[in-house]
Amino acid sequence: MAEEKKNRTRQPNGRSSIYLGKDGKWHGRVTVGVRDDGKPDRRHVERKTKAEVVAAVRELERQRDAGTVRKPGKPWTVKAWLTHWIENR
Questions:
Q1: What distance lies between CA 15 and its chain's CA centroid?
Q2: CB contact at 8 A, 15 and 3
Q3: Beta strands in the chain, from DSSP E residues, in sequence order
């Protein structure tokens, strides 16, 4: 059984991953939580060098651990917020 774990090429669920894409750029994916619809919230970073991706992934992991990661989606516009506020007050 220990042999099987040594041959594993994938990270366990919930772990960050860094890989070289077919486009020649380095990509990193970080699980930062769960979206409102129940799916995992995986953030993507793309850089030219592996060192830059490692730094960006570590920063996302630090934000995740500190609880300061922004929610997914676009921020509200003033018009959308005021419309929401008027309709739901």
A1: 10
A2: no
A3: 17-20, 26-34, 40-47
Residues counted in the chain = 89
- Under 8 Å CB-to-CB from 28, ≥6 apart: which residues? 16, 17, 18, 19, 44, 45, 46, 47, 53, 54, 56, 57, 60
**Among 44, 19, 49, 20, which residue's Cα sits nearest to residue 32?**
44
The domain spans of the chain are 2-87
Contacts of 15 (CB under 8 A, 6+ apart): 31
pTM: 0.68
Strand partners, 19: 27
pLDDT tens readout for residues 23-75 = 999 999 999 988 878 888 899 999 999 999 999 999 999 999 998 887 777 77
Please state, in angstroms and as integers, the Cα–Cα distance from residue 85 to each residue in 15, 49, 75, following that order.
38, 45, 15
